[in-house]
Amino acid sequence: MNNFHVVEHPLIKHKLSIMRNKETGPKEFRELLNEITLLLTYEALRKLPTVEVDVQTPITQIKGEMVEDKKVTVIPILRAGLGMLDGVLNLVPNASVGFIGIFREPTTLNPVEYYAKFPNFTESHQIFILDPMLATGHSMKHAIDVVKKNGGVNITVMSLITAPEGLKIVQQAHPEVDIYTASLDEKLNDHAYIVPGLGDAGDRLFRTK
Predict the structure, then answer these.
(1) Nearest 10 degrees: CA dihedral of 131, 136, 137, 143?
(2) I need a surface site. Which of 2, 71, 132, 161 has the fewest CB within 10 A?
């Protein structure tokens, strides 16, 4: 499991504990998700390639390094993934953004795709798929399948909370994909919610229940 990374940081643990609290409202929930995503992004983008550039300092000229952020594509899974988007764009503001809409069919729990729109990307692009909850893993597996069919190669998954069951599904289907998360939780319950989790991230973000 060398491609699975739980980002251990006291600030992440602190903010995630507040998010788990059922009394935390949508405004604070959104702010905290954005803040944790920023911290996850710092780690998830550690492998981004750089290019050498000439830099004139006040003293002398040097060779510096810069990230080619125009070769970064961020793809939130609608709708909850939208809550993570700004956290990534704060660090790579020139990144392209694609969208994929997937919902979980209530009876079978199978993923149902209802929308997909991606910018053009090549094999050299770094692609980051965002979803706060990696639960059953079926939606994320489907999203990765679709991105690969559209030419994506260098793919990283970012989630707030991961269930062991979902992690297994994604790793079996796409063992080369890096996964960054703030927490590996205990399990899924009978309704495919992560335990202890934090409930439905989309509902808590947008107060739809």
Answers:
(1) -60
(2) 2
Q: Are 81 and 199 in contact (CB under 8 A)?
A: no
The rounded distance, in Å, linking the Cα atoms of 193 and 136 is 8
Give tens-digit pLDDT for 146-175. 999 999 999 999 999 999 999 999 999 999
DSSP the chain: -TTEEE---HHHHHHHHHHHSTT--HHHHHHHHHHHHHHHHHHHTTT--EEEEEEE-SS-EEEEEEE-GGGEEEEEEETTTHHHHHHHHTT-TT-EE-EEEEEE-TTT--EEEEEEE-----TT-EEEEE-SEESSSHHHHHHHHHHHHTT--EEEEEEEEE-HHHHHHHHHH-TT-EEEEEEE-SEE-TTS-EES--S-HHHHHHT--
pTM: 0.93
Return the amino acid letter for 13. K
pLDDT in tens, 15-24: 999 999 999 9
How far, in Å, CA of 26 to CA of 137, rounded?
A: 25
* Identity of the amino acid at 203: D
Per-residue pLDDT tens digits for 73-93: 999 999 899 999 999 999 999
d(CA 105, CA 127): 26
Structure confidence by residue, pLDDT tens digits, 31-55: 999 999 999 999 999 988 889 999 9
Place of tokens 């920023």: 38
| pLDDT of 124 | 86
